[in-house]
Amino acid sequence: MRLAFTVALLASTVFAAVPALGQEQPAESQAVALADVPRGLLSDAAIPTAYRIDTSFDPARDGFSGRTEIDVELAAPSRFIDLHGRNLDMLSVVARPAGGGADRWTGTWHQIDDSGVARIGFPEDLPAGRLTLEFAYTGRYQNNASGLFHVKVGDEWYGWSQFQSTDARAAFPSFDQPSFKVPFTVTIRTPAGQVAVSNAPEVSSTLEDGWQVHRFAPTLPLPTYLVAMMAGPFVTAESVVPPTPERAQPLPLRIVTTRPNAGTMHFALENSKPIVALLENYFGQAFPYPKLDQITSPVMPGAMENAGADLYADGILILDEDAAVSRKKLFGMVVAHELAHQWFGDLVTPRWWDDIWLNESFANWMGYEIGGRWRPDLKIGEGALAEGFEAMSTDELAAGRPIHQPIATNDQVDSAFDTITYGKGGHVVAMVAGFVGPDAFRQGVRAYMGAHRYGTATSEDFFAAMASAAKDDRLTQAMQSFTDQQGVPLITVSGGDGSYSIRQSRYAPLGAEPTDTRWGVPVCMRRSEERACTLLADAAGAFALAGSGPLMPNAGGTGYYRFELPGAEWDALIAQADTLEAAEALALEDSLDASFRAGRASPSKLIALAERLAANPDSYAAGAATDSLARLYRAGFLDDAAEAAYLKWAAGLVRKDYEALGFDPKAGAYAGADPEETQRRQRAVAGVAMARDPALEKTLVAAVGAYLGGETAALDPAFFGTAMKAYLAKTGIAGARTLASAALASEDPVFRPAALSAIGRSGDPEVARWILAGIEDGRLRVSEQLSLRLAVVLTGKTRDLGYDWMRGNLAALIDGKSGIFNLRGIPMVLRDYCSVSKANEIAELFRGNLAGTPAALELERTIEQVRNCGTLKAARAQEVNAALRALQ
């Protein structure tokens, strides 16, 4: 709830007495009347120069208390100062001269809006110059990853911070925007014996008045969103990253986690070291901060790049060498992503949120690039383009935004953290790197970093560095055409025999009207070993390419565009899909699917491509084989006969692998196997299980039963999802209750979320009703209860039950969902609906409730996707069903 509150913590805080705010306070309207209140970017009227934060942080309580001092430079005399603070019960505000002196000015605190814009009013003008603001306050912990949050793990409470994007203001009063980058001196007071973590090294830990007082060295300059404050009975594993050519001294390194994970920190500790070294080599400079802590939380949905104190979901860091290949890939990609941020985002920070793509797009590309160098055998690098092609399904919509999005108000900030920034932005970075060449690209990155070290920068600064390195001024305009415009370019190819015409337009699905948009598209095409590139800035152009064999219009798959071919060219390229490298296979799959959804390519071409891709030896390519048809299946395109034919056909595509590779569900049965073989086996098992193969289902159900009976070696975690789905299909509500009880008794970072996810996605109406009524078990966390209910909505066979629950509980569902991971995702669970009438119904139900929130854009995207799917279904479902029935 976004309500003001008072937390009765004063008796237990370090503050012996805190003066209350005076009774004769001006009304809020009087404070607002002093001047317009900034709802987005703060002015430079008051600029912070340093913070001293002292927080009493007992995660077992409902709330925290704190004192913060902020040194500011006041540009001119003023009766007020604008800054940020959200849902803090402000006990006192005092201004004094920064250099000492007897003057004191007592201020009155006013939170102006729900986003946390605040104003301090004073009875007279403060003098211009250097001042110190002193605050005393209390606040509440959140149950989700925003602000200061806490959760019970086993019998103990732990607390963490997650301040990106605008949640530092919920933990302490601040100038909470990235342009204000200053040192922070942090003190964290915990119950005796607990561990505390912040950005800088801890310099002392003493017992004072019953509190363990952890004092940290001043940080290097940081924006508020990168500050870290963690407390609890953590366990740690310590080592150092050995010296490198860029760094003469060892770098202190720790893994910090909750007690149940104590035995599984070694993998993350040892494998973080080479990733740090690879990044230092790429950037040509040492790790920017004096130590590196990597912390985990069971309720963190992703990861966060706090300077020197990264925070991760448990499942990202807590693993061992026997973990599933998919989990090792996730570790490599995410750790490389977050550690790349230590330079690109932390060392050099965007000046305002409209340039946050500079952080996330580059780090997303680096996560795959450096992750791939860390473990080439895992083929992590190809995933960068998979994420980019996935982003195109969002970028094609009319309801959208460019990568570089103007942000005027605070409620627009979180919309910048979506698949456009990560997927599209990362793909555009890969496209530019591929076009200019890796050496010139890295030279541009290093020049950009060197020019803005420990400061802030803008997109224009980055573009200038890239153009200079590439020695091509056209590159700036080309890059801006992708970052400053939304939409996916469509390159339509005509001609043949090495002489082609190419034309660009904006891709539009069936029923949508394309806008007249022009890009500077780096088009690279290939025939056999012959490759050529051009920068297409005009509407059309000629393209000459020697060689033989079918034309691949997106050579290497690095281009952020789709292509359209004449029918015969499609057929020739599809016929060789089993030989394409992963990125090109993904580009082909995406473009053919897009052609079908635009009303051009036939369902038979989708089927032919799937059959060829299934035979591709690369796991990324083979994994995308049925993506197009699977989306139609989930959307309810198929009649009963076509659905049965589809499931049988899809299982048939992987049965050869299933039979050739064999299957033993036991833990470690395939330890040491080739990663590609391992992933093909997992895909084959999942595909055959989806068709309810009786023998496989019996094996899977028995393995889950044995696992739940205490024989944990009976089921390898790599098969948790597939096996639990089979188990629930066989055992229904009784099995769901048994599985839930086992999950909630466990703190295993793989088993617990996998089991709860399987229950939520079971597709069993009885299980869905039990979930929606609310599982009454004190061990189930607030975030898990919500995730279970939204999983019901995501699942086709229970979607309508979940939707009805959402309609009846809309106010509670929306209220209080703060933080970057929360409210914005709620409308997204409705995207698999496929009906024009349902799109209209969703619009009527949700628009009024989500207007002016970070979820508003995601809602409009959802409405458009549901409507587009309905239009496509009305036009093409009959031919899709006929094509699938013919497979029998």
3D architecture notes:
GO terms for molecular function: alanyl aminopeptidase activity; metalloaminopeptidase activity; peptide binding; zinc ion binding. Keywords: Aminopeptidase, Hydrolase, Metal-binding, Metalloprotease, Protease, Signal, Zinc. The chain folds into 4 domains: about 1-235, tricorn interacting facor f3 domain (Immunoglobulin-like, Sandwich); about 345-485, Neutral Protease Domain 2 (Neutral Protease, domain 2, Orthogonal Bundle), CATH 1.10.390.10; about 490-625, Immunoglobulin-like (Sandwich); about 635-660 and about 725-885, Alpha Horseshoe (Zincin-like fold). Helices cover about 40% and strands about 20% of the residues. An 8-stranded mixed β-sheet has the order 5-4-8-2-1-11-14-13, with no helix packed on it. The chain has a 5-stranded mixed β-sheet with strand order 16-17-18-20-19. The chain has a 4-stranded mixed β-sheet with strand order 27-24-23-29. The protein starts with about 25 loop residues before the first helix and ends with a helix.
Descriptive terms for the model:
888 residues; alpha+beta; Immunoglobulin-like; Neutral Protease, domain 2; 4 domains; eight-stranded mixed β-sheet; five-stranded mixed β-sheet; 26 helices; globular; disordered N terminus; aminopeptidase; Aminopeptidase
Quick summary:
It is built from 26 helices and 29 strands. It has 888 residues and is α+β, with helices and mostly antiparallel strands.
